[in-house]
Design a protein that fits this description.
- With about 475 residues, this protein is α+β, with helices and mostly antiparallel strands.
């Protein structure tokens, strides 16, 4: 049995790098085996085979191309009809490097790839053995020249079958209850001549199930909310189910080449919050294998920058101007970005603060006639009307200042009241009646008294002169 290698061959992987650079994965990806990328031809053995166009795969189905190059390197052949070139790709690239590069550049559109598991001397194309429900199933494909297949069971008995028109065969028999490994020998005959023989290990059912999934790829287009899952499985699988975030999608398996099938599933409206998807494979409506898929995310929107906000500052009393001076800075401040800074003064009233472009602010809060409902100046920062930061800046001896201002206010009130009483007491001694007449009369009395005093002084002066 020719095993499918999973180890990349360096030369082929190098080619995958060259080819893969032509287009991003899943760019305009079609399903496996799209009409423009494949064609069915008859090989030299008269059997229908599928060939893959290198250019079309690179352009429209790069994941299939990468899978072919990386997993089927030992079985991959290159065909260029114009050059009559039909040979193994790996060997040709290693032995004819310059010629390969010339062909690659000049005949890029005409290069075809084909997966082959046999050469002209091998008549058994593929064969496998597995157990299921206490039975052993031997399945295989032979060339058209094989007319008879003989399967020798582990106990030595032989079972003889004739290949179908499609050159396939199946042999079934009861499995032995043993812990040891079981092998069968498959012999192919052309008439009575033995043309090929192969020893085949009968793989237990659990081990066979574990190998049903060969290759899987999941890509989520975050912008479209679309998940594409593609892969290859053993051809025994008839249904594949993908589940992500509760959304399920189902795909049928189509033959890719002998013993291998492909599937393609597209899910819409996928959020991809878990970052994982589950792949389940079914054989005859029975779940036989499962795998967790790592999802590659493309077209993912850039994450919004998470802004950090902070308030800093200090408050100080200015006894000379009877005010509080507040200075500080807002980290994360930006004009016209939905950010608002509010201050709560000592009297409990709020007002908006306008920092400069650097987020620096300066406040002068008068203390005259304040009720001092607060013991500190409080700042609040809002972003789109949502409170994100707040801070309180207390001043030294704010309570003492409140007491001083209160005593000063009470002193002013007492002085004003005393002055009012004094003025009122003067008016109580004035006669009733016309105040203007009273002041006028008082002025006349003062004038008469002055004149009498002058006359008295003159009389005294004359009297002194007479005595002399």
């Amino acid at each position: 049995m020719k095993k499918i290698t999973k180890k990349p061959v360096l030369a082929v992987v190098a080619a995958a790098g060259i080819i893969g650079a032509l287009t991003p994965i899943f760019a305009n990806a079609s399903s496996f085996g799209s009409p423009s990328a494949t064609k069915v031809v008859m090989n030299e053995a008269g059997k229908e085979v599928t060939r893959y166009n290198l250019k079309e795969l690179a352009k429209n189905d790069p994941e299939t191309l990468n899978m072919l190059l990386k997993t089927q390197a030992e079985h991959l052949y290159i065909i260029v009809d114009e050059l009559k070139l039909n040979t193994k790709l790996q060997t040709y690239m290693e032995e004819n490097k310059d010629e390969w590069e010339r062909i690659y550049n000049q005949y890029y559109s005409d290069i075809w790839l084909e997966v082959r598991f046999t050469d002209e001397k091998e008549e058994i194309v593929s064969v496998s053995g597995q157990t299921k429900s206490n039975k052993v199933y031997i399945k295989g494909i032979v060339t058209k020249d094989v007319t008879k297949v003989v399967v020798k069971k582990p106990n030595g008995d032989n079972i003889e079958v004739v290949p179908t028109s499609e050159h396939s065969f199946t042999v079934t028999f009861a499995s032995q209850d043993t812990a040891s490994e079981q092998y069968v020998t498959v012999s192919a005959y052309a008439g009575s001549v033995l043309v090929d023989s192969e020893k085949v290990k009968v793989i237990p059912q659990a081990e066979e199930e574990a190998e049903l999934i060969i290759h899987s790829l999941a890509v989520l287009d975050a912008k479209k909310g679309e998940l594409k899952v593609k892969g290859i499985v053993k051809q025994d699988v008839d249904k594949v189910v993908v589940t992500i975030d509760g959304v399920k999608g189902e795909g049928k398996v189509k033959k890719l080449w002998d013993g291998v099938g492909s599937y393609s599933i597209t899910l819409k409206n996928v959020k991809g919050t878990t970052g994982k998807a589950t792949l389940d494979v079914y054989v005859d409506d029975e779940k036989r294998d499962s795998e967790t898929l790592n999802i590659e995310v493309i077209n993912q929107p850039a994450k919004e920058e998470v802004k950090t906000y902070a308030l800093s500052g200090a408050a100080a009393l200015d006894m000379k101007t009877k005010s509080i001076q507040v200075k500080g800075n807002v980290v994360g401040w930006a004009k016209n970005s939905g950010i608002k800074l509010m201050v709560t003064k000592l009297d409990g009233k709020k007002q908006e603060v306008k920092p400069n472009d650097k987020g620096e602010y300066t406040l002068k809060l008068p203390l005259k006639n304040l009720s001092f409902q607060e013991d500190a100046v409080r700042l609040e920062l809002y972003v789109n009307d949502k409170l994100v930061k707040q801070a309180a800046f207390a001043t030294n001896n704010i309570k003492g200042l409140a007491d001083i201002l209160k005593r000063e206010a009470e002193k002013r009130d007492d002085e004003d009241e005393a002055k009012d009483k004094k003025e009122k007491g003067k008016l109580d001694h004035y006669p009733n009646g016309n105040a203007y007449g009273f002041w006028k009369k008082q002025g006349e009395w003062s004038k008469q008294n002055a004149e009498e005093n002058d006359r008295e002084r003159d009389d005294d002066a004359r009297k002194d002169r007479d005595d002399d």
